[in-house]
Design goal:
With 278 residues, the chain is of the alpha/beta class. It has a single domain, classed as Alpha-Beta Barrel (TIM Barrel), CATH 3.20.20. It has 10 helices and 10 strands. The strands form 2 sheets. Strands 3-4-5-6-7-8-9-10 form an 8-stranded parallel beta sheet. The chain is globular, with a radius of gyration of 18 Å. The termini are far apart.
């Protein structure tokens, strides 16, 4: 396994296990540089969203990164998400086109419903299915969906989501949701895998990290991968972007995996998908 290793989604589309997230990265040079740096250093997956307001910068970074790395658009896997205000059939179709234009791309690899906004996500999903059937997006999925949201969604769906991107880290291990998604052939992807930096001074993780001469971030990313979770750590610093990708030269033991699982407190840094008001 290496930085370009992929997992086949339910429809056979191959998605890299490890990518770069750009949540809360300011649009403009900061975003451009992070994306360009990641691609130059071997990343092939970039995750953004309409609400991050940095799709334009991501698009420029993609273009510059492709040139630097000597690859083509086909080598990359680009994800964006439709925001709550744009959920609805026509609205979602329109929002997709806006994202595509900002990114300067003619298709997306993955498009996600960002949050399970009650009464809104089913119409949006119909639009996603249409975009998928028309070949404008290679895979479709959801973000922040709990089990009951997923069950509700496919009462009326033709296509099951291929991805469920959720907050997931050692303080929020989401074991029940992961098991359910695996049974349904939905690939789980972790956002905020490092708990926005809150886990970096955890003594148990530090102890494991020092054994392998790795950082706590690398240990957490490795834990994700060994749990068959796609992960998208965010960084804007080149040395961190590189460091986050250097996780393929060690393996955590079963005991260490259990120990990290044991840090779970069902503790979120982001909103609760069952109780949000945006």
């Amino acid at each position: 396994m290496n930085l370009q290793s992929t997992v086949a989604l339910a429809n056979g589309v191959k998605m890299p296990w490890l990518g770069l997230g750009v949540f809360q990265v300011e649009d403009g040079e900061t975003t451009i540089a992070a994306v360009r740096t990641a691609i130059k250093n071997g990343y092939r997956s970039i995750d953004t969203a309409a609400v991050y307001d940095n799709e334009t910068g991501v698009g420029i970074g993609i273009k510059e990164g492709i040139e630097l790395a000597g690859i083509t658009r086909k080598d990359l896997f680009i994800t964006s998400k439709v925001w709550n205000a744009d959920l609805g059939y026509e609205e979602t179709l329109k929002a997709f086109e806006v994202s595509l234009e900002k990114l300067g791309l003619d298709y997306l690899d993955l498009y996600l419903i960002h949050w399970p906004k009650e009464g809104k996500y089913k119409d949006a999903w119909k639009a996603m299915e249409r975009l998928y059937k028309e070949g404008k997006v290679k895979a479709i999925g959801v973000s922040n969906f709990q089990i009951h949201h997923l069950e509700d969604l496919w009462k009326d769906a033709d296509i099951k989501p291929m991805i469920n991107q959720v907050e997931l880290h050692p303080r929020l291990t989401q074991k029940e949701l992961i098991k359910y998604c695996q049974e349904q052939n939905i690939q789980v992807q972790a956002w905020s895998p490092l708990m926005q930096g809150q886990l970096l001074d955890n003594s148990e993780l530090q102890e494991i990290a020092s054994k392998y001469n790795k950082s706590v971030a690398q240990v957490i990313i490795r834990w994700d991968l060994q749990n068959n979770i796609i992960t998208i750590p965010k960084s804007i610093k080149e040395h961190r972007i590189i460091e986050n990708s250097q996780v393929f030269d060690f393996t955590l033991t079963k005991e260490e995996m259990k120990q990290i699982d044991g840090l779970n407190l069902d503790q979120r840094v982001g909103p609760d998908p069952d109780n949000f008001d945006f």
